Amino acid sequence: MTPEINLLPKLTHKDEVKSYAPYVLIASIAMLVVAYFIYVYATAASSQTKLEAEEQNLAASLTEAQQTLTTLQAQNKGTLEEATSFVKANSYAVSPLMDEVTKQLPANTYLREYEFTDTTVTLTVDLETMRDVSFYIERLVMSDYFIDAQISTVNTFELGNKKDDKDPKRKFDFLPRYTVTITAVIDYAYLKGGAS
């Protein structure tokens, strides 16, 4: 009789289950990775179609804007002669206005600043007294170069160093000066044709 020798290890059901567990785990992880890649691909494809549609809309808007720009440029295209004639027709000499403004200034005054617009000149003038302010406004209104003159602001300031004197008698030794902002409306017809 021959002895029965079995060289193969004896497997139990418990050992078989343990041997399949790593394979099942790897397979499930692989399925999750594949599912994730499918989701990412679907999302990217959806985003790509949306972006392509938006790109087409923007390209159409750009084409429309370029056509509008070309049309507007063609309509507003003027010659150099037209531009020169427009400037000549709508410009005025500033020198007579400045001469008139400085000529009307009372004595001991200072023209601090001036600014021209199409229809007005804004002056900032330092004057000694309120009487000088009214006198200057009156002379501007009576001038042929201006239709009207209005005071915008009046501010006071003292000349020299400001000292904090406690003596009330010293307060009356200094008279404040006035900084006045005046807006004068230009008589364009007189300036253009009648001024000599």
UniProtKB/TrEMBL annotation:
Q: Which residues form a coiled coil?
A: 55-82
* Keywords assigned by UniProt, alphabetized: Coiled coil, Membrane, Transmembrane, Transmembrane helix
Q: Which residues cross the membrane?
A: 20-42
User: What InterPro entries does the record point to?
Assistant: PilN (IPR007813)
Protein's name according to its UniProt entry: Fimbrial assembly protein (PilN)
UniProt source species: Metalysinibacillus saudimassiliensis
